[in-house]
Design a protein that fits this description.
Rossmann fold; 10 helices; two-stranded antiparallel ribbon; globular; eight-stranded mixed sheet
């Protein structure tokens, strides 16, 4: 693998430049998980690594309860066939569950798993494999704690005979236990213009907990927000799509894993992306001073991911030098 990395360095002037700092020399150390006989080899270290290989085999080499957060967007059914082989919607759950079982083993009891996924249309109707997957994961011991929505702000128009263009995707939150790490203050947002008029003249009802009229148990106390500049967000993330690597079909924006990393981890925690692609989750983790582990079947994507992480490291040191 080192010979391949050296060959890559010789071909790319950019990668040679970003390797100059001696404090972060990853491009010469990208591990291969198979020897010359295609036999799996256990990695020497999994911290701050981009690993080429099948995530099931790689994760089998990791200890129990070592990951703080998993953020990933797996191949969707029958997509990315040229890279990942494509998975039939009818067997998607069967394909995914051995991986989910390994995620459950390596995730800490206080950790969180965020799954970005979307149903596809088959024979004119939405396939149910996403709903089936959620149900099967619960059967295997996962808690389905929450569902977030990623609204794609910059989605361009489209036209279909019986539906409109998809403009959002699921972000399912799973946990091993009902008590997990969560730092809500890290993702607070400005209170908004509504507060100027809504909080100006409060009624007596606004000054106490006003329970729902339908008996749902929900209630609110509007006066709690008087004088506050920041409030907790809702579960819809309004983020534009990105495509760092135009040869990769995924449009995972860096801001998306960043948001969940801030919400569910602390500095030094380990963030895993088992379908790493071009490394967006690892870049976000590095940017926020977390450890990272990215796994992908494609050596080409792993090289691009490593280059992005190295650039992130070099850029952070340049910024620090400029501040000093």
């Amino acid at each position: 693998m080192k010979e391949k990395s050296q060959e890559y360095d010789n071909k790319s002037a950019d990668s040679q430049r970003i390797r100059e700092p001696a404090h972060f020399d990853l491009l010469s150390q990208m591990p291969s998980l198979f020897d010359e006989q295609n036999v799996f080899v256990q990695p020497a270290s999994y911290l701050d690594s981009i690993i080429v290989g099948n995530c099931e085999q790689v994760l089998d080499a990791l200890p129990d309860n070592c990951v703080d957060l998993i953020v990933t967007s797996p191949p969707y059914a029958d997509q990315r066939k040229s890279t990942y082989g494509g998975i039939s919607p009818d067997r998607y759950v069967q394909w995914f569950m051995p991986k989910a079982d390994r995620f459950l083993r390596v995730l800490k009891p206080t950790g969180t798993f965020i799954l970005n996924i979307k149903e596809r249309v088959v024979d004119g109707e939405r396939h149910t494999y996403v709903m089936e997957l959620v149900i099967e994961m619960r059967r295997h011991g996962w808690f389905w704690t929450e569902e977030y929505m990623w609204h794609k702000k910059n989605s361009h128009p489209g036209k279909w005979p019986n539906r409109f263009r998809d403009n959002w995707e699921h972000l399912f939150q799973f946990n091993k236990t009902k008590k997990f790490k969560m730092f809500q203050e890290n993702v607070m947002v400005p209170v908004g213009d509504w507060a100027a008029s809504r909080l100006k003249n409060l009624s007596e009802t606004d000054k106490q907990r006003d329970n729902s009229r339908v008996g749902s148990g929900f209630g609110k106390n509007i006066s709690n927000w008087v004088g506050r500049d920041m409030v907790y967000p809702n579960n819809v993330l309004h983020l534009a799509t990105e495509c760092y690597n135009r040869q990769h079909s995924a449009t995972f924006p860096v801001a998306l894993p960043e948001w969940f990393i801030k919400l569910f981890t602390e500095a030094g925690d380990l963030v895993l992306d088992p379908f790493n692609g071009s490394g967006t989750t690892c870049v976000a983790a590095k940017r926020l001073n977390r450890r990272f582990l990215g796994i992908d079947l494609s050596e080409e994507y792993c090289r691009k991911a490593l280059e992005r992480v190295v650039r992130e490291e070099v850029g952070s040191h340049i910024n620090q030098d400029e501040k000093q």
